[in-house]
Design a protein that fits this description.
With 261 residues, the chain is α/β, with parallel strands linked by helices. The chain has seven helices and twelve strands.
Length: 261
């Protein structure tokens, strides 16, 4: 069965009731795909954790900050697994480390350098939905790292590469990528199909609806991206792809420069 990666951000995880809604979206995919899900922290949780850290120390250790911030996604992944279990769906949650996300050693802004897909593949093959905590990984020195704000998007694309999935679906609080910010302009036009380069240009001005680094990574490996509304999951949304795009990097995952720069 083909594999698909679904990414749910903080806006899709605004409350405990959100997990039931997300479970229904996932359930609808199971007739067609083996499903790997990547989750962010629940809405506002990362900011709350940062505030707690700074109440203790205005300039906290970056290592300890990564340890703290990585817990936000762990909350999300376990709660979603429980919600799926309640629906009678076999599911397992995995931290970034358990999912084989190997990163550079740079705390709070690490880059993904490899993915050991063995555990995720094994769980998918056993029929489970695999839920991975985004935004985090582990360095070769076995230190927990985070990928920077919005880094769960990068996790999703890296897993798609590792699993040979052709598509990643991002579920957002808007209907896709627009010609301009739809929250600020009533005449914003939904763009149904755009190139990687056009997507990268647009997300700079739309509150990083998807992370530029994940677009770079997808472009280098011809991973199709779809941006959809979690409120209307059957809507058309935006598809980002470009078959004419030529890979510009010898790195399998991330490197220190942008593929599209």
């Amino acid at each position: 069965m083909k594999k698909i990666v679904l990414k749910f951000g903080g806006a899709a995880l605004a409350s405990l009731g959100s997990f039931s809604s997300i479970s229904k979206i996932i359930k609808a995919k199971l007739s067609f795909y083996s499903v790997c899900v990547v989750v962010s922290a629940m809405q506002g949780v990362t900011d709350q954790l940062l505030q707690l850290a700074r109440k203790i120390d205005s300039n906290p250790s970056l290592r300890e900050l990564d340890m703290l911030l990585s817990t936000g996604e762990i909350f999300s992944m376990t709660l979603l697994a429980m919600a799926l279990h309640k629906e009678g769906i076999e599911a397992i949650s995995l931290t970034g480390e358990q999912a084989g996300i190997i990163t550079s050693s740079c705390h709070v802004n690490a880059k993904i350098i490899d993915v050991n897909k063995e555990r995720v593949s094994r769980e998918l093959e056993s029929g489970k939905v695999v839920i991975v905590a985004g935004f985090q990984g582990v360095s070769k020195k076995k230190e927990i790292t985070t990928l920077g704000r919005g880094g769960s998007d990068i996790t999703a694309v890296a897993l798609a590469i590792a699993l040979s999935s052709e598509i990643v679906q991002f579920y957002k609080d808007v209907g896709g990528i627009y010609s301009k910010d739809p929250k600020a302009y009533l005449d914003a036009e939904l763009l149904k199909n755009i190139s990687y380069e056009k997507a990268r240009e647009l997300v700079k001005n739309q509150n990083k609806i998807i992370h530029p680094r994940c677009i770079d990574l997808a472009a280098a490996h011809q991973i199709r991206l779809q941006v959809l509304s979690f409120l209307y999951p059957n809507s058309i949304g935006t598809t980002v792809s470009d078959l004419s795009y030529a890979k510009k990097s010898n790195f399998l995952y991330e490197c220190e420069h942008s593929y599209l720069s």
